[in-house]
Amino acid sequence: MGNSNYFLERDEENIIKTRELRLELPSFCTQFFMGIENQTMPLTRLGYARDLKIFFDFLVTNTQEFYGKKVSELTLNDLNNVTGTHLEMFLDYLTVYKIDNKIYRNGLKGKGRKLSSVRALLKYFFKKEKIDNNVGTKVDTPRYRDSEIIRLEVDEVVRLLDASEDGTGLTTMQKGFHKHTKERDFALLSLFLGTGIRISECVGLNVDDIDFDNYAFTITRKGGSRVILYFNDEVKEALEKWMEVRANIKDLPPTEKALFISLQNKRLGVRSVEKLVKKYASITTPLKHITPHKLRSTYGTNLYRETNDIYVVATVLGHKDVNTTRKHYAAMSEDIRREASTKVKLRKD
Q1: Comparing C-alpha atoms, which of 66, 126, 124, 125 is closest to residue 90?
Q2: Rounded to an integer, what distance in angstroms lies between the CA atom of residue 178 and that of residue 230?
Q3: What is the distance between the alpha carbons of residues 342 and 240, in angstroms, rounded to a whole number?
Q4: What is the structure's pLDDT at 1?
Q5: Quick one: pLDDT band at residue 280, thresholds 50, 70, 90?
Q6: What are the sequence ranges of the domains in the chain?
Q7: Are 26 and 56 spatial neighbours (Cβ–Cβ below 8 Å)?
Q8: Long-range contact list for 254-260, CB < 8 A, 24+ apart?
Q9: Is the dihedral of CA 268, 274, 275, 281 positive or negative?
Q10: 8 A C-beta contact, residue 56 and residue 87
Q11: What is the CA radius of gyration of the chain?
Q12: pLDDT tens by residue, 99-111
């Protein structure tokens, strides 16, 4: 099954975390989570549980109607008494709040996501006729501008790959680790930039997901679907070099099938990959906040530049909604505007 074990383990971990959080929520939330189980992913339900905990903590600490009650003792009748004003107060509360002496902050996007979780709960119980009104529909979602598409230019891609290959710009300590990881790091960055995969898809890859004969590899998309993607000669060469090094790693357990592994001979995790990208990007493009997702955006923009077909980009990147892909088109529009500025001459030479 290739990398399916990784995703199975991740889902199981999220299910267990959600169950633990449910113990801190009102008892009626159990019915909600059971009701949405077959329509949502475990990670989505975990997000709901975290957001709902914040919401109910807010109700019992920051509203007159519910002040002093215990979250675990709230009932469906209490939920029925939640008003649109409470939800608007909740959005204001999310700007900055303190829990266990720790400060938390949310921008418009974070507020919108948490409101969405509360709306899902209200919509579910309204549909089940357990509450009289769905007040979630009466509160506007915070409006925010999409963040600017940040991607690497061609010369920046070259510098990033060069840094991962030869260690240029690394500290003495970093160079000590680099000699053991350069083939891995170069292959990983090449895969991001050459295929546009998501970070979760990358860390989930196993050795037997790679088909060098057909320049192909199998990934698990959001939702669990298995998809075959293809890579070019440059990515193939980088992966082959890493596979040679990986095959000769001392004390690597034969049961470890992960394609990319840490110096501890374990599957490289999401956080480790984020740190890896940040390390090289901070050297080559210090003014840009480059993340694995920005490498994906770089690939999407370059693919659109080469194909001029938004639907090709959407298919390869695995976007269900082509409007998501249009962000890459917006990034290209900037190039068009820049080029247009050179076309009109104010004074003849």
Answers
A1: 66
A2: 28
A3: 44
A4: 42
A5: very high
A6: 4-138, 154-340
A7: yes
A8: 257/3, 257/5, 257/206, 257/207, 257/208, 258/6, 258/203, 258/205, 258/206, 258/207, 259/205, 259/206, 259/207, 259/209, 259/210, 260/184, 260/187, 260/188, 260/202, 260/203, 260/205
A9: positive
A10: no
A11: 24
A12: 888 999 999 989 9
The predicted-structure confidence for 45-71, as pLDDT tens digits, reads as follows 999 999 999 999 999 999 999 999 999
Per-residue pLDDT at 33: 97
Query: Which CA distances in Å does 35 have to 31, 39, 78, 116, 261?
Result: 6, 8, 20, 17, 38
For the chain, the average pLDDT equals: 89
* 160-189 exposure pattern, b = at least 16 Cβ within 10 A, e = fewer: bbebbbebebbeeeeeeebeebbbbbbbbb
pLDDT digits (tens, 9 = 90+) for 20-31: 999 999 999 999
- CATH domain 154-340 topology: hpI Integrase; Chain A (1.10.443)
According to the model, what pLDDT value does residue 2 have?
Answer: 43
**Is the C-alpha dihedral spanning 42, 44, 45, 49 positive or negative?**
positive
Cβ-Cβ contacts under 8 Å for 244 (sequence gap 6 or more)? 183
Res 187 pLDDT > 70:
yes
